[in-house]
C-alpha cells in the first residue's frame, strides 16, 4: 500500500515537472515571438523642410531591428544628433506598433563672415552660432579679419551687421556684402555704397532706403553714396 502511494506520488511529481517544462518552453517561446514583434521595423526622419537628407537618415537608421521599448537606443541616437551643430533640436516619437519617427529642426544659415582674401568662410545661424565652414555662397557676407571655428559665436555687433545686410538684400538681391567699422556698416552694391549706423533700428531707415534704392535704379545719374547714419539721409553723386 505504501509502495503504491510512493509510485503514485513520483508519477505525479514527474507529470508536474513535465508540465512545468512545457509551460516554461511555451512562455520563453512567446516572449521570443513578442520580442521579435516589438522591434523597430521602420524608421522615419523629418525636418521642417520635409524628409531628411541621406546623411541624417543614415544617422538614425541604426535603430532598425532594436527592441522598440528600449529607450536607451533612441536616446543614444538623439544625443548624437544634438551634438551636430546644424541641428537645433531633435525628438523621437513612437508609432504603434513598429515605427519610430524622428523630428529634427535644423538651424537656418543666415550669413557668412571672412576676410576679402578668404577661400573658406564661417557660416552663422540667426543666433550667431558658427555652424560650419564653407566656400563663398549667396548668403549675406560680412568682411572681417577675425577667424572663427564651428561652435564659436559672433559678437552682437557682427550678428546685427549680418542681419542688416540680409534685410537690405530683400530690397535688392544683388546687395550681399558689407564691411563693419566700429558701429558703422558699409554695404557694397552694384549701385551706390550704403552707410548705416548699427545702433539705429531698421524702422528708422529701412522705408526711406527702399525708396532711395528704387529711385536710384531709374536715374540716369545714380548716386554713388547713400548715407543713412543721420536723421536726414545724405546722398552723394
Tell me the CATH topology of the largest domain: Rossmann fold
Q: What is the chain-wise order of helices and strands?
A: HEEHHEEEEEEHEEEHEE
Task: Provide the domain count.
Answer: 2
Cross-sheet strand order for the largest sheet? 7-6-5-8-9-10-11-12-13
Largest sheet: 9 strands, mixed
Which CATH top level class of the largest domain fits? Alpha Beta
Can you tell me the residue ranges where pLDDT is under 50 for at least 5 consecutive residues? none
Helix content: 25-40%
Named CATH architecture of the largest domain: 3-Layer(aba) Sandwich
Structural class: alpha/beta
Oligomer: single chain
**Mean pLDDT reading:** 85
Number of contiguous helices: 5
Give the beta-strand count. Answer: 13
Distance between the termini: 128 Å
- Which percent band covers the strand fraction? 25-35%
Protein name: POTRA domain-containing protein
Describe the structure concisely for a colleague:
The protein is an alpha/beta fold and 237 residues long. It folds into 2 domains: 42-106, Ubiquitin-like (UB roll) (Roll), CATH 3.10.20; 109-236, 3-Layer(aba) Sandwich (Rossmann fold), CATH 3.40.50.
